[in-house]
Amino acid sequence: MVDQLLPDYLDDDYRPTLVPGAAHVVIGNEAIIWSPTWPSPHFLDSIAQLLVSVFDGVATRKELSAELHDVLDVDIDVARNQISRVLEGLARNGLLPFTHPDVPVWNAPTSLLPEPNW
Fold it and tell me: Of the candidates 81, 84, 2, 92, which has an alpha carbon nearest to the alpha carbon of residue 43?
């Protein structure tokens, strides 16, 4: 069900932020991130680690794509695809609140979170 929701949910107006209580540890240019409500941590490569540090719930996916394009001097489509890849990974690991950007995080329906892959 999450796979069907991700493309529409993570549109250009989405304002990425992490679930409350998410924490990460930086190891070189990479990191490990986890949520207190998810059974396993998630690995972040250097691009994902950079992006997670700016997911503040204020900047839109479109604005973040433009910033990544400017800062790393990559094609805008490459920047957008990288952000999508990171957001999808975070969502699959219970690290993004599933709610519309105009709805407070605490109203996120947890039934939309993917089942753990044990």
Answer: 92
